[in-house]
Methionine synthase reductase (Aureicoccus marinus), 727 residues
Amino acid sequence: MTLSVWRFSHQLLALASSLFLLLASVTGIILAFEPLVEGSKPYSASFNEQTIGQTLEILEAQYPEILSLEVDRYNRVLLEGIDAEGASFRYYVDPESGKKLGEPEEKSALFRFTTNLHRSLFLKSVGRFFVGLFSFLMCLITITGFLLLLQRQGGWKKLYSKIPKEDKSSYYHVILGRWFILPILIVGATGVYLSLEKFSLLPPLALEHRLPEQIDETMDGTASYELELFKNTPLEELRKLSYPFSEFPEDYFEVALQDRELWLHQYTGEALSELSYPFTTLAQRWSMLLHTGQGSLLWAIVLLLVGISLVYFLYSGIRIWGVRTRKTKKSSVVVVPAEEADTILLVGSETGNTFAFAALLQKALLDLGKQTHVAELNSYQMYPKAEELIILTATYGEGEHTTNGRHFLKLLDEVSQQQTLNYSVVGFGSLQYPDFCAFAIDIDKKLAELPGFEENNPLFKINNQDFRAFETWAQGWSAKSGQVLKLEPLKKKKKKRRYIPFEVIEKSALNLDDTFTLKLRPQKKAKFTSGDLAGILAEDGNIRQYSIAKVAGDLVLSVKKHEHGLCSTLLSQLAPGDSLMINLQKNHEFHLPGFAQHVLLIGNGTGIAPYLGMLEQHHSDKEIHLLAGLRTKESYELYKPYLEAYPPQTLELAFSQEKEGQYVQDILQQKASWVAKGLENEMVIMICGSLKMQNGVLEVLENICQTELGVPLSDFENMEQIRMDCY
Ligand SMILES: Cc1cc2nc3c(=O)[nH]c(=O)nc-3n(C[C@H](O)[C@H](O)[C@H](O)COP(=O)(O)O)c2cc1C
């Protein structure tokens, strides 16, 4: 079965039973306190291997007439009898001294009310039926959830491996799911079992004893505690012992032990009848214990946590579902039929984000007059008028296809187009997964092999739905086609951005590369750190983001002035004393992780900026190396004051426009064995700057890992040892 079927079932079942589950969870939380309250009362005894016989001897010496003796789940010994004044009594006793401990109390009104609600919703049999049904649905929800978890984690072996942090609700939904799946399944299954039993759908629990035809007439006065069974059976084995009605040998002891029931001749101790409990009785008792926690404080606490976790699952599940439905609503407003379109935009998406990118692209293509048809990968068909095919796709599982793209590779073989299609593939993935954009890579390879397809733009991979990277791809497309694709900014969440005023403290002159640095001081309380992003609103209403450094509390950024760059022009015109509004955004993935002791910072051009702050902040607690790619020696002057104030352990500079014509990749390759050793010793490598440089560096790193260590780079990516912020 496919991922989407499991997800659909999981969501549908959860939605259908959400009200019941909420009610059952809240009442379950209250009822989990019952065993805690009961267990805390001072009536429980420790039996210390005491036998039934020893207990009877102690009790018979103190109480003139005993009717029955019962040991309950809390190890409380309940004695029923008639006292010297002829009055009947029923109380807990200490089996070692025979002393009265206290009288059984009635179940509290709160627990009675809640039990009724939990068991039958106050609807008697009808209610019980629904409770049983919903308990069954809860089992199905748990099983489908587990299958989704397996899919997500990439199999059993990785079930407890790291969970990439996406949004908070999914993250904790999965974390709690891993821990509570088994207890929830137990609660659900025992709930179903107890309901079946109440509807007499299971064999009856009562045993059918039969007396033998002949009963020994002996009445020799042997004391009951002398009887063999009582002498040899520990008290903890006993559930209930009922004394004979009279002294006649036809009346017998009724003994219920943990595993069987006996009728004992009251003088000879002969077993007149002995029947073992069938499986159903034991299952009923275990179900009761596991469903209610009665008798086990530890399990009662687990049940309490199960109740709380179920409430959280409902809350987070509804949030996840809401977010997905919103995202999956494909915002493509214009519908161009496949038969009419000259441009085909096919999308592989699971949770809808890629559709949001596709919608922007479709809009931009339509603006260029291209008749753009948008569809899922699985809808691939003949496109009689198409000239161009653009594929945007995510990757799931262990580098696998999205559900809506699972037939695509097969369809490519089966459906042949009449004319040649120019194609471009854009992969959306996450570097937190070992097989980054693997599905896009597969598609790209397949198209390259098939006749009738010609590559228009090379495969482009985007990490973490990075809109800046998508813009870079669009620029590549524009350069190739000679038409400018104008993408509207991605409307992610309609979060109100908070802008904080900063004052310009310093601005360097433009260097040969048209690059300059800005030092800005917050005019209000502002929380940020090196590696975070500064969003600056340009005249066209779009926001440009810059990686920033925090140096002595000030914000430092490096900007390359582009000829037509609205934002970079605006920034280049600032002078000390001017004010600038900045929207600060946390960029956790590009912070130095706490565990890192050795760090290799790799950057080119303006991508060096965040490192200036990291060097200052972590100068004393980490060993930091910097490998920087610049055009000329003069380009270095911009960063020199910062790097001299807090110099890295080693500084390597690659100048692409000087005689030696070096790139950071070249230096990295020269240091291959040092890099490999570092990675083995938990060194963290950070990469900031152009995507071209990032791709080159990743290629060299992959090569180093394979040749020097015999492992893929993804091993280190998964350990969060590779961190990137490229654009
Ligand atoms: C369960 C799961 C598995 C994923 N597996 C991969 C993977 O193997 N490779 C990869 O590059 N990205 C992987 N991703 C990341 C997604 O492909 C990425 O977040 C993508 O942008 C999601 O797009 P969508 O919202 O359109 O589905 C995975 C994400 C999830 C939730």
Observations:
- The chain has a mean pLDDT of 90.
- Residues 704 and 710 are 9 Å apart (CA to CA).
- The pocket of flavin mononucleotide is lined by residues 152, 349-354, 394-399, 428-430, 433, 435-438, 465 (CB under 6 Å).
